[in-house]
Fold this protein.
Amino acid sequence: MNRFLSLKEDEKINITDADIDLAASEGISLSTYLNNKYSEQVAKFNRETDAGLDAFDIALLSKGIIVKDNLEFGIQSSSMMTFFTTNENRALFPEFIIRQLRQISGMPSIINELVGSTRVITGDSAKQIVLDLSNTPAGQKNKQALKKRRIAEGANIPVATLKLGETSIKIYKYGVGVKATYEVLRRTTIDMFRKQMELVSLQASYDEVGAVIDVILNGDGNTNPATVYTATDLNADATEGVVDDVTLVKFLVKQAPFNYDTIIVDEEIYTQICTILMDKNFTNAINPKVSFEFPQGLLNNLRVIYSEDLPLTSDSKHQIIGLAKPYAIEKTIEAGSTIQEVSKTVENQTQLAVITENAGFNKIDARASAILKLA
């Protein structure tokens, strides 16, 4: 590890203003430009060191900028102010911040547990393809067509019709940003700054969950709010405000043929579910050597997602959102809407970095999500 702290002269990569201008003129990131320009040098360096670094990593090391702590070797990351000690170092700062934002936006996020697919669109609006299964004549016709049954020789095959949704998907701007004063940068190591940025992104991903919940509960504008089941209608012995195993199983079975693999709950219900799991004796009561299988998938592993954005119902009852993740929610992103910027404000001596994208959420199939009202 210490080998990388002092590069040989022929291993160093020094960035010039011309490199920055050329990357901008080609419409690519500085990292991509450097990897293209120094591809052979980077490949040779990695063959000799097995370091796995790219050109920008080497450019940072060339200026003595250490971005990550390694206590095993007694190495501490550099101060953030290292980026402002020389003009050459200052030129590295915007790309460093953008790389961190890019890495953070690609980190595992709780939103990924709720979104079944992602679609990129051109323009600022799009319509979802809908299979109408409502109580309208067209919806009832589709329901009948979906029932696989024997067809007499020469008879017409029942056909279900797909159509475009009546309302365009709503697109909003989502983003995460970090602002710091020069005093903070001077007293913060790069590794600590990276961790703080990760925490900001973590909160931003939780905020997106609220948008998904709103679409599930109220629909995406195409008259498709979630179907609501009341616990006492499913189980006469259910207790208001309490989730029990019988009621939950009946709710899941009601969703056939969909395999509901995810539920979203508030803090109270999350606690109750954890208690159910801890109280149960998992020894098979019939024969310890006998196990059960559920090939239809109606009773399968469940992801339990806690969200503070899940409200009580209008009459103040707890509710559980159930969904079949692959078919429930789609995230729609506007092509070219991802913007990464870094700016400096002299008046109050701060550095600001932001990354934003225009996106929206819509239902893939309204039947793939439903509500269990604990009343």
Q: What stands out?
A: The radius of gyration is 27 Å. The chain has a mean pLDDT of 81.
